Amino acid sequence: MNRNDLTRLLQEILDGDASIEEGVAKLCRLPFEDVGVALIDHHRELRQGVPEIVLGEHKSIEQLRIILTAMAAAGSNILVTRLSAEKAEPLCNAFPRADYDRDARTLSLVRQQIEETGDGTVLVICAGTSDIPVAREAVVTASMLGNRVELLVDVGVAGIHRLLAQGDKLRDASVIIVVAGMEGALPSVIGGLVSVPVIAVPTSVGYGAAFGGVAALLGMLNSCASGVTVVNIDNGFGAAFAANRINKAGTRLKEQGCG
């Protein structure tokens, strides 16, 4: 349940179109629902503006089916991250409207129309083709959260002219997510070119001395470009969630009468 749903329900009760008992029945699963394998946080969209998102990794197909069934019954939009193709196939059969992104390893099920809000575009940039899975996770997540999203692929520092040719997109973005492995230099370059927030995502792409993304992580943490924020290795989801909050800060202020 989100703020609009709750407002509509209370107005229906006030107008006599719904009884108090009907209202109680709809609210009885708040703030959470015990489905045996999980406590579904139906209250999260009221608190944070977005429904609970499910980490698919290490959960069984049956556990995921139970969780998704409860969330779908509540009318929530559903996003599952880190979901293998093997697990996705039976879940897509159980939920025919679900969409599975093989690159992002995400399953999304839209139950309510997603309205694009926010101050502008979330631009996701990845240094190389090998970084696409993490970048796609960020794209799908930011889109499901109601942001306008664009993706630039393979514009790393080995051929910096490819990035500089995209100057208009860099300048037009409201927040930029930069995904890179190897030495993780790309966020520093972009951080020195733009005035908007830059969120750096180190990936585990690279040869031995990359240490599974640690080299990129340390490089980004030590960026000489001011204003670069860093999330964990391969954490496209976390970067997108942070970008969503940044992109919608102005909208929240207006809703609170501060804008």
Q: What is the CA-atom radius of gyration, in angstroms?
A: 20 Å
* Mean model confidence by pLDDT: 88
Number of helices: 12
**CATH architecture field of the largest domain:** 3-Layer(aba) Sandwich
Unreliable stretches (pLDDT < 50, length at least 5) are: none
What proportion strand?
15-25%
Instruction: Determine the N-to-C terminus distance.
Output: 26 Å
How do the strands of the widest beta sheet line up side by side? 8-7-9-10-11
Highest-level CATH class of the largest domain? Alpha Beta
**Oligomerization state:** single chain
CATH fold call of the largest domain: Rossmann fold
Tell me the number of strands. Answer: 11
What does this structure look like?
- By secondary structure, the protein is an alpha/beta fold.
- It has 3 domains: 1-30; 31-109, no CATH class; 121-249, 3-Layer(aba) Sandwich (Rossmann fold).
- The chain has helices at 3-15, 20-27, 44-48, 61-73, 85-94, 132-144, 161-164, 167-172, 186-191, 214-221, 236-247, 249-255; strands at residues 33-34, 39-40, 54-55, 78-81, 99-101, 106-109, 121-126, 148-153, 173-180, 198-202, 228-230.
- It has a 5-stranded parallel β-sheet. The chain has a 4-stranded mixed β-sheet with strand order 3-4-6-5, with helices on both faces.
- Helix 6 (132-144) links the parallel strand 7 (121-126) and strand 8 (148-153).
- Helix 6 (132-144) runs parallel beside helix 11.
- The longest helix has 13 residues, at 3-15.
- The two termini are 26 Å apart.
